[in-house]
């Protein structure tokens, strides 16, 4: 009996729980579906109604609109166009082509009273329009006066947007890459700084029709730069920019234009390691010749020739990537300073050799000193007696001169001085006094010296070498100090002429 009651109670409890769960799950499910259906149907109806209202508004605005005429034409007032740039990337700066490029968001904003939305039943303050809307409204013909090649990005679609406000203000933004010309001064290359300008304005509308002004964006006015993205700019570093006030530039008439100037500093590390330091080391290597003995002429000349060829190779390598300009650059001047240092050392080597020869000649006695023998040294005859000749000799019967015989310095005989040889210095004594080799030979015989009479093979330091060891580095160091002061410490001056823009048209 108890078993039957327990079984019945368990059955009743399970049945109740099953019915309760089915009720709750079914109830929630039906409630959610009903809410979703109600929200989706109402949102779709509202979106359809908003789209119809926007379409009707734009059709009403563009009904009598003519995009061929600028805003404010009937009133006679110029149309004001506000410009701002957001530069994302900068470079490259090409000094070979005198150009620079950058990527930016180029925004233009103007007000067109014909595009005002008067019956705004939607409640929207701004409308984002498609690119097809640009072909149906007026837009300024802005271009870059000093542009070389600029284009709008079209991947994956044309990067442009148009926003229309209810008061008729139009914002036209596009992502473009600008490549502009830059007049660079290469007189201080590679220690130079460059200032590149960007000028933009209207191509067809004069200053009485369209006026350009910089647009203020909070603390920035007209131009904003993303410095983190341009930190890795090759060869140059962007140090800053300067915005100029709006001005009218002359082409054929007066046109309103805006100008911004970018300032660049060239990186010097590449040129220091590849040109300046090697040239200085070559000059230092040439000074090793000052510590070499002056008798080693071949070694000294070999060092000079090797260093000159090395400087020539460095000079040719520097011209491969350098700008082709008419005036000498700072790098050219430095290489020529190294050339002059070599030209100073080469005459010094030659002068040391000449000084050595002069010292040897001074030590040779010019007059004969009495030798150790018992009597005077005989004077052998150098040349035989010269026969008397006529002024005009016959070709068939020429007069034969006496044969010249070889003499020996050990031969003993006297020279017979006749009347014909009385005024001619052709005896051995005169020959010994005037010929350096004969004097040296006689002097060695008198002093019984066989080889190296003056210590030529010994290592001797010249007086010119002792002076050049201190004078050459001093002159070279002072020249480099003057070079640094002239090309680095001297302030940079950038000259801009607004009338030169005629050549860009």
TrEMBL record:
SUPFAM superfamilies named in the record: Neurotransmitter-gated ion-channel transmembrane pore, Nicotinic receptor ligand binding domain-like
Primary location: membrane
Signal sequence residues: 1-19
Origin species: Caenorhabditis angaria
GO molecular function, one term: extracellular ligand-gated monoatomic ion channel activity
Membrane topology according to the record: Multi-pass membrane protein
Pfam families registered for this protein in UniProt: Neur_chan_LBD, Neur_chan_memb
InterPro entries: GABAA/Glycine_rcpt (IPR006028), Neur_chan_lig-bd (IPR006202), Neur_chan_lig-bd_sf (IPR036734), Neur_channel (IPR006201), Neuro-gated_channel_TM_sf (IPR036719), Neuro_actylchol_rec (IPR038050), Neurotrans-gated_channel_TM (IPR006029), Neurotransmitter_ion_chnl_CS (IPR018000)
Region of interest (Disordered), ranges: 363-389
Domain Neurotransmitter-gated ion-channel transmembrane, residue spans: 276-340
Cellular compartments annotated: Postsynaptic cell membrane
Family: Belongs to the ligand-gated ion channel (TC 1.A.9) family.
GO CC entries: postsynaptic membrane
Transmembrane segments: 268-291, 467-484
Key words, A-Z: Cell membrane, Chloride, Disulfide bond, Glycoprotein, Ion channel, Ion transport, Membrane, Postsynaptic cell membrane, Signal, Synapse, Transmembrane, Transmembrane helix, Transport
Start and end residues of each Neurotransmitter-gated ion-channel ligand-binding domain: 55-266
Designated name of the protein: Uncharacterized protein
